[in-house]
Amino acid sequence: GISTAAAAAPEQATPYLRPLLQFAAAHVPALKHKETPLYILCTAGMRLLPERQQAAILEDLVRNVPLEFDFLFSKSHAEVISGKQEGVYAWIGINFVLGRFDHEDEEDAVVTVALGDQRESLVRKRTVGILDMGGASLQIAYEVPDSGAFSSPQQEAAAKSLLAEFNLGCDVQHAGHMYRVYVNTFLGFGGNFARQRYEDLVLNQTSVHNRLHSQRIGLSPETPFLDPCLPVGLEDTVARGGQSLYVRGRGDWLACREQLQPLLAGSNSSQASLVGAYKAPIDFSNSEFYGFSEFFYCMEDVLRLGGRYSAPTFTSAAQEYCSQRWEVLTQRFRGGLYSAHADQHRLKYQCFKSAWMYQVLHQGFGFPLEYPSLRTAQLVYDREVQWTLGAILYKTRFLPLRDLRQESVRQAHASWLRLSFVYNHYLFFACILVVALAIVLYLLRLRRIHRRQLRAAQLTLWLDKVVVPPGQGNGP
């Protein structure tokens, strides 16, 4: 990413982005460049850099990008966004694609929302929450319809840092599209990082056990540590700081699940605790969630259960997989029985990751075992939904949410509108002709009246000349 390319040399930031910007410039009409906003939003990699390096990279972009491209770009358009912002943008993107901001559709599930100082609650379409587990981190985001009460000032302070309230409507004065969203990111709780933490835990526990009981478990291939989180018979070696631990899988999914329980609390004081962190209340009887990344891979790549999540079905399939011998699993893999995305790494750690996903979902976030409204997915409507979609929607406020109903009405009457548009100029000319004809008729009428008055005046004058007044015709 840009943090790697320009960390030591900030002047490399613009050259690094140049191919991407050239691609955009080629696809946006040249006449539209100056009115097309450009946003450069940096995420996790840049957040890890010192603020001085971040500022130098952003300064290079703000100074040099306008010299080469005519996009609408200013200093405020280049920034390093927080994990909270990234989560909000991802939440906006998925709900926009699913059409959850169109409040006029009465067929979908609804939720009652109380926001700010409003005296009356809003009833509108229910949004979906998102769960996303990567290799290093875990993230959750969902709408909080009611602010509720806090048990302590500390909890209230934690809530304020994790709740984002924003308006997606075109009119900031209208609260119909105000949303309150809980967003939290847990570093170290991703699938791969959790495995490393688990191996560290096993290494330490085994070392202590050997010292207390004068045993040599895991110190040689002949006396391996029997790992419940690896398939039966799989042999591996864990190396940490000059220490090596020999392990052999025993494929006990239930035991693996119990082994992972301590990891939910975090491994050290600087790492967040999943079970102890503040989590806004979830109405599990009226909510819906989508699980991405590891949630989908755990269910689909090997178990072929991607889609709607069922805890009993998932548990049964995970137990069956873990109990198989490693030779059987690799034979199935070579036979093409698993997803095309599955590889040796997935086969090796599927048992562990499925148990970790289960613990995170039900013990960490408290989802009921019978929860029916979690769907795991990689694509939504055959497209991959990225946080960048939500970012551009939020940044440009390009969401005419309250006009969706009017737009549908206009589309329903599109044929009538086109017909009236085609013929309205004929109507205009007809009106002009009618008015002109009325004026002509009026002028003709005035002309006839004028002629009558003229003839009457001439007749009166003639009579005055011909008729002799009485007394003037006789002499004296």
UniProtKB/TrEMBL annotation:
Keywords: ATP-binding, Hydrolase, Membrane, Nucleotide-binding, Transmembrane, Transmembrane helix
GO cellular component: Golgi apparatus; membrane
Molecular function terms from GO: ATP binding; GDP phosphatase activity; ribonucleoside triphosphate phosphatase activity; UDP phosphatase activity
Residues that hold ATP according to the record: G135, A136, S137, L138, Q139
InterPro entries, per database record: GDA1_CD39_NTPase
Membrane-crossing segments per the record: 426-444
Active site annotation, chain numbering: E86 (proton acceptor)
An annotated GO BP: UDP catabolic process
Gene3D superfamilies, per database record: 3.30.420.40, Exopolyphosphatase. Domain 2 (3.30.420.150)
Family in the record: Belongs to the GDA1/CD39 NTPase family.
Protein known as: ENTP7 diphosphohydrolase
